[in-house]
Known about the structure:
Chain C: It catalyses: a quinone + NADH + 5 H(+)(in) = a quinol + NAD(+) + 4 H(+)(out). The structure holds 3 protein chains of 3 kinds. Chain B is mainly alpha-helical. Chain B has helices spanning 3-27, 32-54, 82-105, 112-131, 135-153, 160-191, 196-204, 211-225, 234-237, 243-252, 254-264, 266-270, 273-296, 300-320, 324-352, 357-360, 366-369, 371-384, 391-407, 416-445, 460-487, 497-521, 541-556, 568-573, 576-581, 586-634, 639-662, and strands at 60-64, 76-80, 363-364, 450-451. Chain B has 27 helices and 4 strands. Chain C has a domain at 152-213. Chains in contact: A-B, A-C, B-C.
Amino acid sequence: xxxxxxxxxxxxxxxxxxxxxxxxxxxxxxxxxxxxxxxxxxxxxxxxxxxxxxxxxxxxxxxxxxxxxxxxxxxxxxxxxxxxxxxxxxxxxxxxxxxxxxxxxxxxxxxxxxxxxxxxxxxxxxxxxxx
Amino acid sequence: xxxxxxxxxxxxxxxxxxxxxxxxxxxxxxxxxxxxxxxxxxxxxxxxxxxxxxxxxxxxxxxxxxxxxxxxxxxxxxxxxxxxxxxxxxxxxxxxxxxxxxxxxxxxxxxxxxxxxxxxxxxxxxxxxxxxxxxxxxxxxxxxxxxxxxxxxxxxxxxxxxxxxxxxxxxxxxxxxxxxxxxxxxxxxxxxxxxxxxxxxxxxxxxxxxxxxxxxxxxxxxxxxxxxxxxxxxxxxxxxxxxxxxxxxxxxxxxxxxxxxxxxxxxxxxxxxxxxxxxxxxxxxxxxxxxxxxxxxxxxxxxxxxxxxxxxxxxxxxxxxxxxxxxxxxxxxxxxxxxxxxxxxxxxxxxxxxxxxxxxxxxxxxxxxxxxxxxxxxxxxxxxxxxxxxxxxxxxxxxxxxxxxxxxxxxxxxxxxxxxxxxxxxxxxxxxxxxxxxxxxxxxxxxxxxxxxxxxxxxxxxxxxxxxxxxxxxxxxxxxxxxxxxxxxxxxxxxxxxxxxxxxxxxxxxxxxxxxxxxxxxxxxxxxxxxxxxxxxxxxxxxxxxxxxxxxxxxxxxxxxxxxxxxxxxxxxxxxxxxxxxxxxxxxxxxxxxxxxxxxxxxxxxxxxxxxxxxxxxxxxxxxxxxxxxxxxxxxxxxxxxxxxxxxxxxxxxxxxxxxxxxx
Amino acid sequence: xxxxxxxxxxxxxxxxxxxxxxxxxxxxxxxxxxxxxxxxxxxxxxxxxxxxxxxxxxxxxxxxxxxxxxxxxxxxxxxxxxxxxxxxxxxxxxxxxxxxxxxxxxxxxxxxxxxxxxxxxxxxxxxxxxxxxxxxxxxxxxxxxxxxxxxxxxxxxxxxxxxxxxxxxxxxxxxxxxxxxxxxxxxxxxxxxxxxxxxxxxxxxxxxxxxxx
Lengths: 131, 664, 213
């Protein structure tokens, strides 16, 4: 079998997963897309392992071993990832990636004035909320 | 101790006193008064000893070169002849009197320590000018006096008048000092030395390249320092300073320095007929104009200030007719009686709570409150008006005599036109002097109306100083005119009959006319109520004076002028009164000539700075700000956007790497 | 082209190749549906199809053990976990109009560019490479087990520790969230039912954080 077949399929799956990671809004869908990308890599690893184990006399089957490891790590990743998504969902009431924007300045900071006013306003708001 | 050592100590002691006063002022306030008074009195004693040692004989010359200073050497040199010895004694006497007087006058002033230290420094600088035999060393003292006068005139810096006056004094004298410095350099390069003796030798050998230009340059500095027309305008305004400072500046030190320097360098001026003529015209304009202005002033100290300018005009007039003996003689006697006048005026201002003659003329019995000031001031005013046998008579007659001598054809050392100018102006001024002295005396001490407030006796030190100074005002001239020629150039200083009769007659005529006018106008005083006194008449004399100066403009509408129909000067001067009161609008001329163009330039620069330069600065700030805003827009906080950008970059880099690897 | 001539050409595919291609198409299509469908649960189910297709591909590549592991772990546990996650986050059943974010255009551009670049490079590099699938099976359970426990024992054990750590981590995260939720449940319920704005939710979140400190 041509190596190009699994390799191209792997590339296409990877890019599909890539699109999902970038385009999906729900965090769980993003995790699913990540799984797709991981599987694409796995396919690559298996295909190259099969090819190399035929050509080389002695082989460690490192591709298949790594695939197993990847699957295990993916399982761990999905567990942790889901736990995080659940925690976020409980705290924020949403699991939408594009609404989790705490890394950006809040809208009242975006005017051109000095930061102190906005910071003060935020501090006041925070105090009010805490109370 | 040798004469040289004594002479070095004379300026050094007040200087050390000033340093000690500045250092001790805060830590040991108890020592401030002795530290201020004792060095000055010691240097008075030493200067008397120096004068006795010198004795009018050969000049004492000593010099030491501290370090090589390039092409023209600068030496620490002493040159003590009869002029220097006697002027130093005068300076020390007046400075000592002022220091003693200040202990009473500024008794409660919180800034007394720095004040006393500056007065000491001022004295040291003047003594340095007097004794110095090297022009650069002389210039050091000259400039130190300038800065000290700035600080002392601005002693009451809380009042806007004092701030403006100190700045004006500083700037106007500096305006003269720049040409003066250039003139000194011209002399130094011509002679190859800054030593006065060598420069005079060069002048005598006729080796001075441009005598007229050099003399005129020096004259500018002298006019600034000695308050001669047209640079005299700072002196009346400097009355915003404390009275003892006025006495010190006007009687003995700063204004005398200019006359003294011309006396020292008189051969340089004599080398140029044009310079002598300019000097004579300057003297004539100054003495007559200032006397007219003095007749119109309302502030008692401004009257005295203008009279100082006028008397300085006599001294420069004497120099213009090349008789420096007469000039320094008048300097000495004027120093004594003008110091007395100022110090007595300080007492009067303290007692009456005002500096306005209009207000004083509405107080009766002021003379009973301050009998010491009344009597000593009478003596000093008689001396000022040159009534025999007071000292002013002899010194002024020596000036007029010298002018008459030149005018009558003895033009060997001065142009005849200068003689005539000085003589005529001097006689006119004698008339005016009698008039304004009489006006001051009548309006200050012979007022009618409410009784003057009684604040108790004046401090003893202040009254004692007045009597000490009354002695030379009374008798110096009569005793000295026979002996002084031996100290000076040997020229006869005795009064001649013609000028004596003319001068005294004119002065008496002025006094009598003023008395008549006063009799005519004094009745109006009761009908026009006027007058305002200081807010705290019971307070320390310095504070009363500061308040009086600050209150003059709000109360009377002008710093120099009061709308008083009872003023005899108003009757005498007629329509001229308004202009004379404003100092013949010279300040307005200066404002139009210098202040407004400079202000215009400044506002132009301000416009350029604010609107043009700052636009670039703002642009330099705004561009990164806009860029930052644009970049900030990209920071949405959406992780997917970031990852998209990251991966897009990765793809681009990967493609680029592959293309590079395959050589495409 | 001389090298290409050495191996079998693309125009005469073998049976394995045809099977691989067909299953690959199904897998790729299922993956595309997974990332584009608007129904979240359907996405998870289509993911099952894609992962199952991959398992078949492993079989075709003679990697039996991996294929069964794929079925067991991915289809058996991961997808189940994902479905649980969807349920727990109250994912809407049926079409949700906002399954894709506004980043879609950029994502498409980046993905297509990456796909073009990768496919181009891979095809360019491996168009002549031939895998000989005949002979001994490369990925039988025996072979894989020998390799794993002969050569990869230490990483294997380290991986087990990693899994344990992940397990503990997931439990800790869930427990902590549960404690917070207990305190906040009424408010959170109210939020969700009234569909309040994101800002308000964010503020609530801040508030929760403040409270937890």
